[in-house]
Amino acid sequence: MNSPVRPFPPLDHTHGLVEMVHGAGGRAMTQLVREIFVTAFDTPALRRGDDTARVPIPPGRLVLTTDSYVITPRIFPGGDIGSMAVHGTVNDVAMSGAQPLYLSAGFILEEGLPLSELAWIAGTMARAAHEAGVAIVTGDTKVVERGGCDGLFITTTGVGVLTDDRVDIAGDRARPGDAILISGTLGDHGIAVMSQRENLSFDTPILSDSAALNGLVERMVAAVPDIHVLRDPTRGGLAATLNELADQSGVGMVVRETALPVRPEVRGACELLGLDPLSVANEGKLIAIVPAEHTDTLLAVMRDHPRGHHAALIGEVIADPDHIVQLETALGGRRIIDWLAGDPLPRIC
Amino acid sequence: MRFIDEYRDPALGRGLTRAIADAVQPGRRYHLMEFCGGHTHAIAQHGLADLLPEAVRLIHGPGCPVCVLPVGRLDMALALARSRPDVILCTYGDLMRVPASGGDSLYTARAAGADVRMVYSTLDALAVARANPHREVVFLAIGFETTTPPTALALVQAEREGLRNLSVFCNHVLTPPAIVAILADTADAPPLDGIIGPAHVSTVIGSDAYAPCAARFGVPVVIAGFEPLDVLRAIVMLMAQINAGRATVETEYTRAVTATGNRTAQALMEQVFTVRESFEWRGLGALPASALRIRDAYAAWDAEARFSMPPRTGREHPACACGSVLRGALAPHDCRLFGRACTPERPQGACMVSSEGACAAAWTRRPRLKDARPKDTRPKAQPAAVGSGGGDS
């Protein structure tokens, strides 16, 4: 911030737009990075202006993950692409039981994106990172011609450290007899985004559940270090995630429909749109698979945390050579919960 | 959720499944066809087949709009979207993944550059036309009498607004002729003992529309809503008729269906559409007076009149048994492709695409493959209060 780079030309934060020159590697780019990203994220590593961030790491196993964020609309009820890019990657690190520490952020900007929106999104990223206790320490900016991307794409990489040697949380560790827990209501994020897209309004607005879960995971792991699996059911919803885990662990699962927490307004929207809440995306929920004897302890810890108030035991892992996930319906029948084939498509009738 | 939860109540459901079990007469079988994809979806979604005794068998009917659309008609729409860069083709989401000839679909056409858009209603298509005055917006209209009045309304609205860049590629079909075709086909399909009649379609055309079918073929029809208790109650009502040797049209879905239907919607359909001499149905073949076309007065909005859209003969996967499945002649498991070359991820036929399709519904049940060893590894729970046990149908 303090080096004598003259503004070229001055950034107009109110009416200015992203231009090709902001990605050309010249002074305009440096200016954009400084005035928008460095100002918002405000970390010592970024302020130094180097291409790399040198950061201290506590002893333990290093955990790395990366994810790209593309979403229409960029700002939706309860969140936006910026906060989501922080929450999503923080959560991916946390699902290993690790403590997330640092993030990198890569931006692909479309020529013509309002600078005011970019600054606003950088601000929500900074707030989300601050709340999650992680620092955004390095980044990259590219600009593509109008039409080359949809406004703004963000890629974040997360680094965390797993300090407790006893913790071994992985997708292949679900065992027959394990209990399946969910941290809260299903489908809030997907329906919030979809209702914005389809211009649907409800008496009670449906907000995205986008949130960082590392605080919740920290408590859970402290109480039950022997958690077998943690995963956040994002794209494809609970259905896709349980199928992934059944496949990875080589087991089957049975989930009880009556135990699934779904907000009435989300159920209503799903009925209206012809969607299944099991296949709708979440951005602030996790699935925990644990030995059954830890169920009560873990549920109590989860319900005691603001991100887990509506935690519930939803089913159990069973032996099944076909690795099928089944739903026991409220009426007492059974059906297979399948992977979603492509996008969820609304039905006609 | 009001008006939903009441119709999914587990205690009431147990009562109805008990009534079904009690109604079974020794030595009698009850082969019931649920005509509508909406029913098929509800049966799969709520696992209803598990709750029925061995003697009661549900056969999935052809009332799935995307399933009965012949491949050739889809090919015609694809050819139009491909050959005319000025065309925006709008349609319902269900149709996007349906396989056309040569492994094509609306999705693959879109990936290759055609402007194909998914809409929720004809109102969206009107909005697209207004927003793109220099483009030709073609609405690929499909469906039974449920989706027909909204299409009619869109054309009336387009006329009123003088909106000249909207047109409709009409593939609307009629329900009663399809029911007649199924009941008349005794060659390769097993005889049916009863029909669970359409829900939403009947709100428009009324229950009287099925009286000739019931009388001519001596098969009872019970019009049922799309909620699980509606379906179970319709089964109870059908079994009572079968046991008593009656064959009349009854309505379970009394909260929405009347004898004469929705006169306003019927008048709209009459104003805009007229009956085609014959129309090809996937699975059922060419059926006389079974579909609608746009009246000459609205020819300016008829895509078939406006563009060069030569008829095409679609190429289906040679082994695809969708046709027989739609007639109830084959069960999805009997198709050679089912679960092997044809899965929800890579559907070969329309019945596997829509969640209303018979094959997609069958795919939600175990065992998934006919020749798979039945390996039920689930812990033995108490059968859900079904008197004679919950056998697979």
TrEMBL record, chain A:
Q: Which Pfam families match?
A: AIRS, AIRS_C
Q: Origin, by domain of life?
A: Bacteria
Q: Which GO terms describe its biological process?
A: protein maturation
Q: Which residues form the PurM-like C-terminal domain?
A: 175-327
Matching entries from InterPro entries are given as:
HypE, PurM-like_C_dom, PurM-like_C_sf, PurM-like_N, PurM-like_N_sf
Instruction: List residues of the PurM-like N-terminal domain.
Output: 49-161
Family according to the record: Belongs to the HypE family.
Protein's name according to its UniProt entry? Hydrogenase expression/formation protein HypE
Automatic annotation (TrEMBL), chain B:
Chain segments carrying region Disordered = 366-393
Keyword Metal-binding in the entry? The reply is yes
Q: Provide the GO biological process annotations.
A: protein maturation
Source species of the chain: Roseospira marina
Member of which family?
A: Belongs to the HypD family.
Q: Where is the composition biased (Basic and acidic residues)?
A: 369-379
Q: GO MF terms on file? A: 4 iron, 4 sulfur cluster binding; carbon monoxide binding; iron ion binding
Q: What is the protein named?
A: Hydrogenase maturation factor
Ordered alphabetically, the record's keywords are: Iron, Metal-binding
Q: Is Cytoplasm among the key words of this record?
A: no
